[in-house]
Structures
1.
Amino acid sequence: MAYLNNTELLAHLSQSLGEKILNQEDTFGMLCIEVNRNEIVDIISNLKSDENLKMQFLTDLCGIHYPDNKGKELGVVYHLHSLENNIRLRLKTFFSIEDPTCPTLTSVFDAANWMERETFDFYGIQFQGHPDLRRILNMDSMDYHPMRKEYALEDETRTDKSDKFFGR
Amino acid sequence: MSEIEVKSAVPMTPYVGMSNETIDGEIATLNLGPTHPATHGIFQNVMKVDGERIISSEPTIGYIHRAFEKLAERRPFNQITTITDRLNYCSSPINNLGWIMTVEKLIGAEMPKRVDYMRVIIMELARIADHLVCNTVIGVDTGALTGFTYMFQEREKIYEMYEEVCGARLTTNIGRIGGFERDFSPAFITKLKAWLKEFPAKFDEFDRLLTRNRIFMDRVIKAGPITAEKALGYGFTGPNLRAAGVDFDVRVMNPYCSYQDFEFDIPVGQEGDTYDRFIVRQEEIRQSLRIIHQALDNMPAGNYFADVPDFYLPPKAEVYSSMEALIYHFKIVMGETPIPAGEVYHSVEGANGELGFYLVSDGGRTPYRLHFRRPCFIYYQAYPEMVVGSMLSDAILTMSSMNVIAGELDA
Amino acid sequence: MVNIAEQPEGFEGQGFFATKLDSAIGLARSYSLWPLPFATSCCGIEFMATMGANYDLARFGSERLSFSPRQADLLMVMGTIAKKMGPVLKQVYDQMAEPKWVMSVGACACSGGIFDTYSVLQGIDTIIPVDVYVPGCPPRPEQIIDGLIKIQELVQNESLRRRNSDEYKKMLESYHIETL
């Protein structure tokens, strides 16, 4: 069983992906790389089938919104885990809020199905190729995507809560 | 009579007169939930059934969506512990301590060994409490109500122990960033030792009631099986995955909180059906008891908190006499402590699997983004595939053996 | 000497006891309430503990839990009600036959609790009338039993004409609940 550490993993990734890695950092023991959304499915699929890496477990998939990064407001964050090599990897991909689409990962991992639906529900990111992209946690009649930073936590139709007393 | 294509995950048990045709030519639509005595939690399943056999199942969740992730963006760190309680509310301490460990990873705080051992005891008690709920409820769904009544009494004793540590029974808010607010009281140690002496015998009684019971075995064997490959593809973790045959346990893979000091086994099943899930949980309770014994016997002396003045409240006497302590106290209570920027992912072995916390901080007073990797949400996706082709009663058992907790499902 | 139940006011004689019909029926109803546990989240687990052997709710007559609204008297809403769940709760309430009582257990059911968010109903009394509120997060089993005792007092003192009175009908209209 070949246990990898982050340096070896990074070397392996730079070798196979090279230019496609836009950004990389070591966050508290986990390697994190940023890639382009058009290549994300291929990259993850190769990571899964790679003989040495065997990143065969999708731990998590979530969205994130940075309203200040013009052109790269919305992002999707993937956490992969190689059970045999006991190493984790985080992949990020960012894209503009004007074009909130991203290819789906359901062909590679079954687990991505509901996770992508949740990300769509919260951020409005359309996953192309998803078999059943609709809201999962919120009501179907909801017309906005609540986790985006411009929306408040409370229900917007409330009239009884005055911000005067609740400050921030 | 019409011919229907039934895609089933299990080979169908043959019964007399069985063919691939529907019985009356009618497929009934059955709405299971959201309010239903057998779904332990509120989620809905619209099933199409041919007699008793399930042809398709479509789950709908979100009936208790409480917007934890959005709520967390509004709250400073020590206030988020109270909302993590309500994720998997049968074992709240594990959620609390997992979150606290995530924060400690972000701020780079090292805990003294004593704190680690205290946390291990509490987390294993929580794991036992959760597994008792799940297994007794599997018993209830097969008609054996006695186990439920007897084991809930043991859970009351676990609740009493929580009360000694933090004051609450269910939604515990146990622990602080930097350790605990007070050391384990002698009353807690006495209660724990008394419970450790009595519980194994009572648990064995419950075990003898169901594990080799002919009726129970006939009900649960081969109900809702899943293969290891499918389980990994669906992101299963925890007892559900171990029942399918994969020995993935976050406590062993990425040890946290000094778990590497303890010796324990990981029970693994073979078929991934309800019986295996039941047995895996039973064995995990025994292993948790082993861990608690080791932690209690080898508890190191030391401080019950680390030196993290930015997040851990200073002693009250100092607050009244020293200026720095007063300022720290004020900032912590009002939630004005600036958090270091960065992003961290930390996971703990919850009762249902890998409970992960993905925290992104931009240096403000509250997280920029907090995402909970909830095991229930991820493995419940596989439910339709596990039940299609089996009988309705098996579907109910599969649901209760997967231990789907609505709070963790919807967050 | 065993006290079985508080005797209502009445006139006693040899071999008979005369009292108001209201009191007699109220007495019988209060000690045989069939609750519908509408348990959604954490308070539901505390309810399971209340039904358990330690805090036994069955002592108070609520031995038989009814999950079917058609056969229940008391709707115990325990846990957070999200906006998605609101119509379901209303439908369950509508399906119950009069006389029915509603107990809201836990801070989330009473007022939304700590979840002041876009998806949580801020209190079930925005959609159905509530008789007893039990605060707590979650309330201890003793508090839930206290709530049940208060419901029992309401049941014992309720007039048989209350459900047909104009005041009651007006209240139901304010909740947009149709009465037959």
2.
Amino acid sequence: MGIGKSKSTTVACAIAILWCSLQSSDALERNAGIWRVLRAGHFSGPMNDGAHVRAIKGSIDSQGKQYKFWEYEWENKKTGHGGNALLVFEQTRNGLSYMGSYEVAGDDFRGPVHPEIRGKTVFYPYHDIEIMGVKQSMAISFENGPPPTTVPGGVSRFLK
Amino acid sequence: MENLKLSHWPDEASDVFTGDGLLDGLPPPVRSSGLDFLLGGARGQGDALTIGQVDPDRLVLGRPEGNDHSVRGPKNPIGPVQGYPETGKDSWRASNDDVIVAAVNKYNAENRYFPGDVAYMTPKLMKAWMMRESGGSPNAFRTDPFQVNKPLDYPKSDEKKRIADLARGQVMTPQTSADAALKWLYYKGHVDSRTGRLVPYQGHYEALRNYNAAPGHSDGISKKSEYANDVLNHAWISYGDWQE
């Protein structure tokens, strides 16, 4: 009986530890590096273990400001839903400052698509497909700073 | 019929009415089979009763109402989605069928969609979609079966409030979930996810991809494509032409 009781106590402890570790992994929040900048800039997207970022090489100088960009993706592991975004930062003497983001697809029919800087635009090299005469590549122009939407008349807006 | 009659209730005949129990003092009940009770043909029980009638002269033991754990079937059953059984302990998976049928009818009527329209929805497709979202979770099934309003999925913009009339953290029911999911799917089907432009409805496949929007790839296919494929394939293998 004593052994049985000990075993059941051990099993209960193991379950409790497992439960606690699952809870803590759910609640894992990213705080270091670029995540600290995002938090300081009141970025409203998830910043837990389902979120990932990747720096985009280069920068855009426009109207006396220097903009830097990061890719962002997140997946809610409970629902399987997620999304991609382009994060926009301003480079100042004190470091990076988060300005806002656009929701933008991070892949096409062939696989992941990573944006690149071309002149004063952030260009998404989607593998060209043509639908009714329109090429499905996309470039966000920062000629006049961050535009209110990714493309004129679009629904993907510049948001915190 | 004779071979369907039970001579006694085997589970109660020998152990309940032996005295010293809660039923002491009550006259022993007259036992008959369920068929006898309905048909009224056995042992002079009088006129047959119709379903729902109660014979006050006869005491037939049954489960008290409060202990009835059976799930009432839907009025408009859609049928099971392959891989998601609905019998026995899994009968909860049929519990939102009426909600789906009502939501689909409302959506099609409000948008004036008819079979053949690209955005026309059917209960069969919607049920396959719901199973992908919450077919493994009875709790999600009772609250937000389409997982349309989870806090971490809530967009930064006011889109969900404006389009699906959902507030962040709003208490969800299967009805609000189904109605909002259809509105959100419809909207997502109108957005070119690469350019962010509003375009004509791109079909349920693209709408489902955008509804899920999971980043990344698995086994050479994007997760959101796998999601859309899975929903549509389950609809086809479960119901055949789900558009009917």
